[in-house]
Design a protein that fits this description.
The chain is mostly helical. It contains 3 helices and no strands. The radius of gyration is 38 Å and the shape is rod-shaped.
Amino acid sequence: MLERVIVLEEGQKRTNATLDKINERLIGIEAELKHLPKAADYASLKADVARVDGKLSNIPTMWQLLTMVVSTWAAGAAIVFTILRFGGK
């Protein structure tokens, strides 16, 4: 009977030691979690990313830029041609 009590006490000591280790670990984890961003921080970040994405979607593509440049050159060339052709002599 005394042997059973001794075995139970040893098991209890090991369990307490394990629980103490787990408790120490949880305290460390809680300390690290305090430094992480909160849900509100992620919400504002999500809004910022959506705003930047909206601005990026409005940037013209390379083909659109090329079309604008060629159109501008063509209009300039047409103006120069018209001035030279019908300009005063």
